[in-house]
TrEMBL record:
Belongs to the RNA methyltransferase TrmD family. One of its GO terms (molecular function) is tRNA (guanine(37)-N1)-methyltransferase activity. GO terms for cellular component: cytosol. The gene is trmD. Keywords: Cytoplasm, Methyltransferase, S-adenosyl-L-methionine, Transferase, tRNA processing. Residues 1-86, 110-259 form the tRNA methyltransferase TRMD/TRM10-type domain. CDD domains: TrmD-like. This is tRNA (guanine-N(1)-)-methyltransferase. The lineage of its organism: Bacteria, Bacillati, Actinomycetota, Actinomycetes, Micrococcales.
Amino acid sequence: MRIDIVTIFPEFFDVLDLSLLGKARQSGLIELGVHNLRDHTHDRHHSVDDTPYGGGAGMVMKAEPWGAALDAILGAAPEAVATEAVATDAAAVATEAAATETPTAVNAADDGPILIFPSPAGAQFTQAMARELSLEQHLIFGCGRYEGIDQRVVDHYEARGRVRLVSLGDYVLNGGEVAVMAMIEAIGRLIPGVVGNPESLVEESHEDGLLEYPSYTKPSSWRGLDVPPVLLSGNHGAISTWRRQQQIERTERVRPDLMPPDLLPPANAKQSPS
Ligand code: ADE
């Protein structure tokens, strides 16, 4: 998978050299490009933001540097993307693209890259979304700051390909960088080969809609707390049943909103009016 990130804080992503994702980069499973938005400005101060039209607090990120940065990643001048989008002779376009070795443009027709803008106004990022995105060839993340990015950037690329606004959760971060780090870790570990033992991906929280069961290791007794005896029994059927029960109990207690309706306990007969 190819991942490109546009940000005003490229150093933020230095940590992607570490751990499993660092190894995945070394082995070529993940190819990463981090791009400084300020490299696409032309004024003396390399400014990327300006005051909002209509007034209000804060600053808005300017469309021009974003357009230049994203076009550079897509390898197509804005005109080239537009021409491709309206071209009627598909064969001629394909030949021309091959001749000039134009990298894939954001284009729904050929399932090109997905452009992802982290935003508290986006759709909720979930394990299902991480799994879906882990199947893609090319993700481009645009990290907004301040009061967000000029809406026309989203509109422009949405008209030409696949764009998503994605939220990490119902709270506000100072910018998209932390959200992108979290998304890349969640997506990256689902790419085959990134996590050494793929079985460890199967029985974790959210994979089957429930939270995961509690885990224990040696010693069997610690500070007066014993490992549940069933886990020492060697009875695999009993262990499976216990773990499933723990998942259900934990999900019901901590995240009742995730409980599948068929696993909800039957309504308490005593409480219902007769
Ligand atoms: N940027 C600021 N807050 C965010 C959030 N909750 N999710 C994604 N990106 C953000």
